[in-house]
DNA sequence: CTTTCGATATTCT
DNA sequence: GAATATCGAAAGC
Protein backbone atom coordinates (compact mmCIF):
# COMPACT_ATOMS: atom_id res chain seq x y z
CA UNK A 1 0.00 0.00 0.00
CA UNK A 2 1.03 3.60 -0.43
CA UNK A 3 1.77 6.20 2.23
CA UNK A 4 -0.90 8.51 0.82
CA UNK A 5 -3.58 5.87 1.16
CA UNK A 6 -2.36 5.03 4.65
CA UNK A 7 -2.55 8.70 5.66
CA UNK A 8 -6.06 9.07 4.25
CA UNK A 9 -7.38 5.95 5.96
CA UNK A 10 -6.12 7.21 9.33
CA UNK A 11 -8.89 9.82 9.13
CA UNK A 12 -12.45 9.25 10.38
CA UNK A 13 -15.00 8.37 7.71
CA UNK A 14 -16.57 11.84 7.32
CA UNK A 15 -13.13 13.16 6.29
CA UNK A 16 -12.02 10.09 4.37
CA UNK A 17 -15.15 9.39 2.31
CA UNK A 18 -15.03 12.21 -0.29
CA UNK A 19 -11.42 11.31 -1.15
CA UNK A 20 -12.51 7.76 -2.00
CA UNK A 21 -14.38 9.07 -5.04
CA UNK A 22 -12.33 7.97 -8.04
CA UNK A 23 -10.53 5.25 -6.10
CA UNK A 24 -10.78 1.71 -7.48
CA UNK A 25 -11.64 -1.54 -5.74
CA UNK A 26 -10.45 -4.56 -7.69
CA UNK A 27 -10.83 -8.31 -7.25
CA UNK A 28 -12.95 -11.36 -8.15
CA UNK A 29 -12.59 -10.48 -11.82
CA UNK A 30 -13.82 -6.89 -11.76
CA UNK A 31 -12.51 -3.37 -11.14
CA UNK A 32 -14.88 -0.65 -9.92
CA UNK A 33 -14.24 3.12 -9.85
CA UNK A 34 -16.12 4.60 -6.90
CA UNK A 35 -18.57 7.42 -7.74
CA UNK A 36 -20.76 7.67 -4.61
CA UNK A 37 -20.07 7.08 -0.89
CA UNK A 38 -21.65 7.69 2.52
CA UNK A 39 -19.75 8.18 5.79
CA UNK A 40 -20.81 6.57 9.09
CA UNK A 41 -19.06 7.70 12.28
CA UNK A 42 -20.18 5.70 15.27
CA UNK A 43 -19.09 7.92 18.17
CA UNK A 44 -21.53 10.74 17.29
CA UNK A 45 -23.75 9.22 14.59
CA UNK A 46 -27.02 7.44 15.52
CA UNK A 47 -27.24 6.20 11.91
CA UNK A 48 -24.07 4.13 12.24
CA UNK A 49 -24.27 0.39 12.85
CA UNK A 50 -21.53 0.88 15.44
CA UNK A 51 -23.16 3.68 17.41
CA UNK A 52 -24.25 1.36 20.23
CA UNK A 53 -21.05 -0.65 20.39
CA UNK A 54 -19.76 -3.85 18.84
CA UNK A 55 -22.03 -6.79 17.94
CA UNK A 56 -21.25 -10.01 16.05
CA UNK A 57 -22.42 -8.37 12.82
CA UNK A 58 -20.60 -5.04 13.05
CA UNK A 59 -17.36 -5.96 14.81
CA UNK A 60 -15.13 -5.41 11.78
CA UNK A 61 -16.38 -1.84 11.54
CA UNK A 62 -14.17 -1.28 14.60
CA UNK A 63 -11.16 -2.88 12.93
CA UNK A 64 -7.94 -1.36 11.62
CA UNK A 65 -7.97 1.14 8.72
CA UNK A 66 -8.29 -0.51 5.34
CA UNK A 67 -10.51 -3.33 6.59
CA UNK A 68 -13.51 -4.32 4.48
CA UNK A 69 -16.76 -4.31 6.48
CA UNK A 70 -19.57 -6.20 4.73
CA UNK A 71 -23.09 -6.55 6.10
CA UNK A 72 -26.43 -8.03 5.04
CA UNK A 73 -28.94 -5.30 4.25
CA UNK A 74 -32.65 -5.99 4.73
CA UNK A 75 -31.74 -9.64 5.00
CA UNK A 76 -30.93 -9.79 1.29
CA UNK A 77 -28.21 -7.54 -0.08
CA UNK A 78 -24.50 -7.53 0.68
CA UNK A 79 -23.12 -4.01 1.15
CA UNK A 80 -19.47 -3.01 1.44
CA UNK A 81 -17.69 -0.40 3.61
CA UNK A 82 -14.09 0.82 3.74
CA UNK A 83 -13.08 1.04 7.42
CA UNK A 84 -10.92 4.04 8.39
CA UNK A 85 -9.94 6.04 11.47
CA UNK A 86 -8.43 4.78 14.69
CA UNK A 87 -8.81 1.07 15.43
CA UNK A 88 -11.40 0.52 18.12
CA UNK A 89 -13.81 3.20 16.86
CA UNK A 90 -16.59 2.43 14.40
CA UNK A 91 -15.91 4.38 11.21
CA UNK A 92 -16.83 3.28 7.73
CA UNK A 93 -17.48 4.64 4.25
CA UNK A 94 -20.33 2.79 2.52
CA UNK A 95 -19.64 2.27 -1.19
CA UNK A 96 -22.94 3.24 -2.81
CA UNK A 97 -22.16 3.38 -6.54
CA UNK A 98 -19.35 2.81 -8.99
CA UNK A 99 -18.42 2.58 -12.65
CA UNK A 100 -17.30 -0.83 -13.87
CA UNK A 101 -13.93 -0.12 -15.52
CA UNK A 102 -12.81 -3.72 -15.99
CA UNK A 103 -14.52 -7.12 -16.05
CA UNK A 104 -17.80 -5.79 -17.38
CA UNK A 105 -18.80 -9.25 -18.66
CA UNK A 106 -18.23 -10.72 -15.19
CA UNK A 107 -20.32 -7.98 -13.60
CA UNK A 108 -23.11 -8.48 -16.10
CA UNK A 109 -23.13 -12.22 -15.50
CA UNK A 110 -23.71 -11.49 -11.79
CA UNK A 111 -26.32 -8.77 -12.32
CA UNK A 112 -28.26 -10.06 -15.30
CA UNK A 113 -28.20 -9.57 -19.07
CA UNK A 114 -30.73 -6.73 -19.23
CA UNK A 115 -28.91 -4.38 -16.84
CA UNK A 116 -27.32 -1.39 -18.58
CA UNK A 117 -23.63 -0.64 -18.10
CA UNK A 118 -24.15 2.43 -15.89
CA UNK A 119 -26.54 0.51 -13.60
CA UNK A 120 -24.29 -2.50 -13.00
CA UNK A 121 -22.97 -1.09 -9.69
CA UNK A 122 -25.58 1.61 -8.98
CA UNK A 123 -26.83 1.36 -5.38
CA UNK A 124 -24.99 -0.36 -2.51
CA UNK A 125 -26.72 -3.73 -2.89
CA UNK A 126 -26.10 -3.80 -6.62
CA UNK A 127 -22.47 -2.74 -6.10
CA UNK A 128 -21.94 -5.63 -3.72
CA UNK A 129 -23.47 -8.05 -6.20
CA UNK A 130 -21.38 -6.72 -9.12
CA UNK A 131 -18.25 -7.12 -6.99
CA UNK A 132 -19.15 -10.70 -6.18
CA UNK A 133 -18.83 -9.91 -2.48
CA UNK A 134 -19.43 -12.92 -0.22
CA UNK A 135 -20.42 -11.96 3.31
CA UNK A 136 -18.90 -14.86 5.19
CA UNK A 137 -15.61 -14.81 3.30
CA UNK A 138 -14.99 -11.10 2.76
CA UNK A 139 -16.15 -9.38 5.96
CA UNK A 140 -13.05 -8.32 7.92
CA UNK A 141 -10.51 -8.88 5.14
CA UNK A 142 -7.82 -6.32 4.26
CA UNK A 143 -8.22 -4.03 1.24
CA UNK A 144 -4.54 -3.08 1.36
CA UNK A 145 -2.07 -5.94 1.64
CA UNK A 146 -3.32 -8.48 -0.90
CA UNK A 147 -4.33 -11.00 1.77
CA UNK A 148 -8.02 -10.56 0.95
CA UNK A 149 -10.00 -10.83 -2.30
CA UNK A 150 -10.05 -7.07 -3.03
CA UNK A 151 -7.53 -4.27 -3.27
CA UNK A 152 -8.20 -0.53 -2.90
CA UNK A 153 -6.20 1.97 -4.97
CA UNK A 154 -6.31 5.77 -4.69
CA UNK A 155 -7.57 7.98 -7.52
CA UNK A 156 -4.75 9.21 -9.78
CA UNK A 157 -3.15 12.40 -8.50
CA UNK A 158 -4.27 12.05 -4.90
CA UNK A 159 -1.25 10.05 -3.75
CA UNK A 160 1.13 13.01 -4.12
CA UNK A 161 -1.28 15.47 -2.52
CA UNK A 162 -1.99 13.23 0.47
CA UNK A 163 1.68 12.69 1.24
CA UNK A 164 2.55 16.40 0.86
CA UNK A 165 -0.18 17.84 3.12
CA UNK A 166 -2.52 16.97 5.96
CA UNK A 167 -5.21 14.67 4.49
CA UNK A 168 -7.96 16.67 6.20
CA UNK A 169 -6.71 19.80 4.40
CA UNK A 170 -6.57 17.96 1.07
CA UNK A 171 -10.18 16.82 1.48
CA UNK A 172 -11.21 20.38 2.40
CA UNK A 173 -9.62 21.54 -0.85
CA UNK A 174 -11.48 18.86 -2.79
CA UNK A 175 -14.76 20.05 -1.31
CA UNK A 176 -13.92 23.70 -1.96
CA UNK A 177 -13.48 22.81 -5.62
CA UNK A 178 -17.05 21.50 -5.30
CA UNK A 179 -18.41 24.97 -4.73
CA UNK A 180 -16.05 26.91 -6.96
CA UNK A 181 -15.75 24.37 -9.75
CA UNK A 182 -12.53 23.65 -11.60
CA UNK A 183 -9.92 26.24 -10.67
CA UNK A 184 -7.29 26.12 -13.36
CA UNK A 185 -6.93 22.55 -14.43
CA UNK A 186 -8.30 21.41 -17.74
CA UNK A 187 -11.04 19.28 -16.30
CA UNK A 188 -11.76 18.45 -12.66
CA UNK A 189 -14.52 16.17 -11.50
CA UNK A 190 -16.80 18.10 -9.17
CA UNK A 191 -18.09 16.58 -5.94
CA UNK A 192 -21.60 17.09 -4.57
CA UNK A 193 -22.46 16.68 -0.88
CA UNK A 194 -25.88 16.00 0.66
CA UNK A 195 -27.95 13.98 3.13
CA UNK A 196 -27.57 10.23 3.31
CA UNK A 197 -30.06 8.03 1.49
CA UNK A 198 -32.46 5.93 3.52
CA UNK A 199 -31.39 7.30 6.90
CA UNK A 200 -34.34 8.50 9.00
CA UNK A 201 -34.70 10.94 11.88
CA UNK A 202 -31.98 13.26 13.12
CA UNK A 203 -29.31 10.99 11.63
CA UNK A 204 -30.59 11.87 8.17
CA UNK A 205 -31.28 15.24 6.63
CA UNK A 206 -28.98 18.16 7.27
CA UNK A 207 -27.57 16.90 10.56
CA UNK A 208 -25.09 14.56 8.92
CA UNK A 209 -24.66 15.58 5.24
CA UNK A 210 -22.22 12.74 4.73
CA UNK A 211 -23.19 11.46 1.30
CA UNK A 212 -20.85 12.56 -1.46
CA UNK A 213 -20.85 11.78 -5.16
CA UNK A 214 -19.42 12.83 -8.50
CA UNK A 215 -21.71 15.54 -9.77
CA UNK A 216 -23.76 14.42 -12.74
CA UNK A 217 -22.17 10.98 -13.03
CA UNK A 218 -24.64 8.53 -14.64
CA UNK A 219 -23.69 5.66 -12.32
CA UNK A 220 -24.79 7.51 -9.14
CA UNK A 221 -27.94 6.15 -7.48
CA UNK A 222 -31.16 8.16 -7.20
CA UNK A 223 -31.69 9.85 -3.84
CA UNK A 224 -34.57 8.40 -1.87
CA UNK A 225 -35.67 9.70 1.50
CA UNK A 226 -36.56 7.09 4.08
CA UNK A 227 -40.26 6.20 4.39
CA UNK A 228 -40.50 7.33 7.99
CA UNK A 229 -38.25 10.37 7.78
CA UNK A 230 -39.17 13.07 10.29
CA UNK A 231 -38.90 16.83 9.92
C1' DC B 1 -45.07 9.46 -13.21
C1' DT B 2 -45.70 7.76 -7.95
C1' DT B 3 -46.75 4.45 -4.26
C1' DT B 4 -46.89 -0.13 -2.31
C1' DC B 5 -45.16 -4.33 -1.19
C1' DG B 6 -42.45 -8.71 -0.61
C1' DA B 7 -38.00 -10.72 0.30
C1' DT B 8 -35.78 -11.47 5.18
C1' DA B 9 -30.93 -11.21 8.85
C1' DT B 10 -29.84 -8.64 12.61
C1' DT B 11 -30.80 -5.74 16.27
C1' DC B 12 -33.64 -3.23 19.42
C1' DT B 13 -38.06 -2.51 22.02
C1' DG C 1 -43.18 -7.14 17.14
C1' DA C 2 -40.89 -3.27 14.61
C1' DA C 3 -37.24 -1.05 12.20
C1' DT C 4 -33.52 -1.18 8.93
C1' DA C 5 -27.21 2.13 5.47
C1' DT C 6 -32.28 -2.00 -0.31
C1' DC C 7 -34.19 -3.48 -4.74
C1' DG C 8 -37.37 -4.42 -8.26
C1' DA C 9 -41.86 -5.71 -9.66
C1' DA C 10 -46.59 -4.52 -9.66
C1' DA C 11 -50.29 -1.47 -9.16
C1' DG C 12 -52.34 3.07 -9.11
C1' DC C 13 -52.77 7.85 -10.98
TrEMBL record:
Which controlled-vocabulary keywords does the entry list?
DNA damage, DNA repair, Glycosidase, Hydrolase
Q: Which InterPro entries match?
A: Formyl_transferase-like_C_sf, MPG, MPG_sf
Protein's UniProt keywords contain Transport: no
Cited Gene3D superfamilies: Methylpurine-DNA glycosylase (MPG)
Q: What is its EC number?
A: 3.2.2.-
Supply the enzyme class, top level: hydrolase
GO molecular function list: hydrolase activity, acting on glycosyl bonds
Is the keyword DNA damage assigned to this protein? yes
What Pfam families does this protein map onto? Answer: Pur_DNA_glyco
Highest taxon in the source lineage: Bacteria
Q: Which family does it belong to?
A: Belongs to the DNA glycosylase MPG family.
Name under which the protein is recorded? Putative 3-methyladenine DNA glycosylase
Q: What is the lineage of its organism?
A: Bacteria, Bacillati, Actinomycetota, Actinomycetes, Micrococcales
Amino acid sequence: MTDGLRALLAEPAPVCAPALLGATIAGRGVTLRITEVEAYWGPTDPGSHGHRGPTPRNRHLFGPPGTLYAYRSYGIHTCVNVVSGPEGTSSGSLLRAAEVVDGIEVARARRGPSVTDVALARGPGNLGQALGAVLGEDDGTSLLDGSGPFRLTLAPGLEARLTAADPADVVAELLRETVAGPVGAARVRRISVGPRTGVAGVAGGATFPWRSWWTGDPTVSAYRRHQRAVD
